[in-house]
Amino acid sequence: MLAGGERVLVAVSGGADSVALLHVLRTLAAEWRLALHVLHVDHGLRPDSARDAAFVRELAQRFDVPVEVATVTVTPQASLEEAARVARYRALEAAADRLAADRIAVGHTADDQAETVLMRLLEGAGLRGLGGIPAVRGRIIRPLLEVRKHDLVAELDRVGLPWIEDPSNDDPKFLRNRVRHELLPLLGVAYRTDIVPALARTARLAREATDALDALAAGHLARLATPERDGAVTLPLAPLRELPRPVAAELLRQAAVRAGGRHPLRAWGHRVLRRVLATPPPRRTLRVAGVSIDVSVGRVRLGVHGPTALPTRALSVPGRVELPEIGMAIVARRLSTADYEVPRDRSRAAFDAADLGDALTVRARRRGDHFTPFAATHERRLKTFLIDAKLPRWERTRVPVVEHGGAIIWLAGVRRSAIAPVRAATREVIELGLVPLKESRPDR
User: N or C: more exposed end of the chain, with fewer CB within 10 A?
Assistant: First the structure.
């Protein structure tokens, strides 16, 4: 959590847990070279919430620690408690950014962990849910997560530090309060034991297992993922199918985050995995948690934005046109046929210069496009041809289409058309080459 020398933003509500947190960190500050700063978040949910802010200000002054109060607006959706939590963490992150804080310390305890595990059980959570509250998440740290609340209260009594109680912590309309005041005591009486340590241990073991799963998925992601220029990530479908379902689901979740997704929930990965692995695969783009998912020709693409189609550009002969959308360029050259060998790789195509002019156009495919492939006897729909060529759906709008006089002469990198073939009588050729954008300009 701390290596020493950090600037730490301490979240202090005024309750026993957060007051104890500030006390502990203040005690350690000199030895650990910690620069502390207190933030109190006023949710404005109670008429007397200003009392809490005043208490925290006075406490911080007593400790000689800088303090701020952030007032937030809570707009509940499904849950008031969740909406308040989201608003609180946004305020903490914003303050940490402003102060250049290395860590944000919050005062969750082992009792909070036990309550969370029971709540997740009631919701039917899986192994990851049973991991409860993480001790470290990004720059958020929870130094008291393995400490019991009654021990913190005893310490506050010992050093004579006051705290205030939030009356909403007793309101039974919140599930956590019912678990805290009803379910946990009931289980303790029924089984004559304190089950908080057992639940905290369950959380710790579950988190160790899921941490191992995360690392395993990250290893497979590094092996399988292909990053795209637009930030998207593509994955081969067959190896994904071979992975154990929990690993594949976590791999998809991590890929979505890498592609720029809004940190989808863990369950997101399992829902998407079921659809991605369906037979037949989905023919339309899936849109989940701000991420677009496409499955096509044995590959999966995850990205925040769809692939950018190529705009229409002019290409002079000789000349060069850059296609930054795909990181490529098309180079056009005029060459004598003396000692010339017709290219056989797909990145180059040669045409009889006598049948073409000096003005070509490079564009994306359009609805209704047709062309006659080289050596074919009949015209084909471009869409059908690209499908048969096994190009993934998202690549089809990114294939440079080169045309002359309204007729398609080359699908750059895929196939040339039957127009202007090089014959024995050809004296000069126009050679088109698809090259990486970073390549130097050829001599003209």
Answer: C
